[in-house]
Amino acid sequence: MAAEVSLNVRIETPENVRLAYQLAGPALRSAAYAIDCLFRVLLITALLIGACLIAAILPGFTIGGILLALFFIEWLYYIVQEGFWNGYSMGKWLVGIRVIHTSGAPLTFWGAVLRNLLRVADMLPIAMVFEDVAWLGILPFYGPGLLAMSMTQKFQRLGDLAAGTMVVQVHPIVLPKQPMILDQIAPITRYESNGFTPTQAQLSTIAEFLGRRSKLTYQRGHQLASELADTLAERMEFTGDREQVRKFPMAFLARVCATFQTARDEKAAVITPAKARLM
Amino acid sequence: MKRATFLAQRKPAWQNFEKSLRRVETVNQRRLSSEEVLAFSRQLREVAHDLELVRTRDWGLDLEEYLNRLLARGHDYFHAPRAGTWHTIGQFLFMEFPRIFRTWWGYQLLAALLFFGPLIISWILIQNEPPLAARFMSQEALDQYDMMYSSEDSASLDDSAFSFDSWNDYGNERASMAGFYVQHNVGIALQCFARGILLGIGTIYTLLFNGISIGATAGYVLSLGHADRFLGFVVSHGSFELTAIAIAGGAGLLVGDAALHPGQLSRWSALRLRGRDAGQLAVGAAFMLVVAALIEAFWSPAPIPSEYKFLVGGFLWFSVAMYLGWSGRERA
Questions:
Q1: In this complex, do B60 and A204 lie within 8 Å of one another by their Cβ atoms?
Q2: Same-domain pairing of B226 and B314
Q3: Given B62, B76, B271, which is nearest A208 (Cβ)?
Q4: Which letter does DSSP use for residue A138 in this model?
Q5: Cα A26 to Cα A150: distance, rounded to the nearest angstrom
Q6: Domain region containing B42
Q7: Does this complex have an ipTM over 0.85?
Q8: 3-class secondary structure, A106
Q9: pTM
């Protein structure tokens, strides 16, 4: 099987729908991990300061309490958060990633337990050398974890493999807007396009490209657009001003979009009201 | 149907679904009316249908992505795992954990042999040949045991240097030890389990290492002639503590062996399948160690004649055996 190098995973849900997720790679996960480490260090610092205040009254309970709290921060920090917070930890939430099962189901409590207990094995070297200094477990080096991640298609570390989980990116849900106002743009005439009609997939690609043009620099956008525009003009044996296409490829793409997308939509609006209600 | 009509028709439905999503995510499940639940499940299926439609007709990746994210969030809520209750915890501790322990008794037996075997051997060896202890333990550790047992006035083992003025001080001191035992022992057990995933090597190492050092300590202290005090201290919490370490080791061997002997399954699925049980075993062992820590901190060092401690300790060993052997069995 040819392995495709991609961040996309598709899962078939019980409703027979394919859901797509974007995996989180080692970079994002390390960032989340660093933030979590910071939180843990802050927690411990706050704890020690608080302990100094109580220690004057109850010395024994304070030492016991600190040791207990260290245990909780070392072993239960992730389990509690991921287990009861839908696969998020503080760091993961801030970075925008979370843990789910490879089946697409949300993380279960036992899944969270397993993947985080096995974290010890994933971050082996330092944890092994300094096993007596509990809080050093916060600063490990993830040798086996990184190795396992680089060998699996879903970037799973050992804990993930045993628990059947993966880490995916979380994006905000925004309804896409029409990329531009198409009314003002002069459509391409039949004569110019030689009767050529682009497919819906091609039109969607163009619309998406135009929708994202503000995210590219002018040069890069122009470069990409001119390739697309030239190919398209070649394909339809465009009889209009080719020089114009080369100079303003974006404008040409917008014209294509305006011509064919509105044509399709108008045709649809005329034909389908009755049918549409049936659907 | 064309894209524009589709968009015009379905947009309100998606926005409605977003609203219901926000509602079901924030409101307690029991507060939702049956109409709301029905509406949510219907909307979820509608959005699923829309997503497939957009995909098959190539109506744009942006739209596809939007619907995909919407559906993924609904899917998350729809298939959320059932929330646990206190009952679930009891069910786990008294039924499932001992059952899983018995299911994988072979691994448990092996782990017990790897732990108790060296423990007993090094114990016997060093009790008969005390100078050997220096090969197993550091000189500081030996000096510490010499000092601990040189003062005869206190019955407690680990802190005979302290004198307790009142019960308050006693409780205080015990609490600090309880914290230490939980942090230290549970940590060892969980590490022992987790390292098992590297083909079981880490687990075997931890089991042997701890078995030998515990046995060596026992042998050395007994050779000094403090059998009564030492065994009286150790017998009660040892029941839960030593068994739990062996169980955590058994759990480690279970995941470690998944990669070596996956049987009819692929290695990854074998790992996943056994990992589930192994994780539960490790958590059960952690619970047992918390019980052991409480016994070790509050009961074991109590200034009570050793005969009573042997009695209670014997009862505790018996309960652990009954618990692991019979708890959660169906009535025949």
A1: yes
A2: yes
A3: B62
A4: G
A5: 9
A6: 3-78
A7: no
A8: strand
A9: 0.79
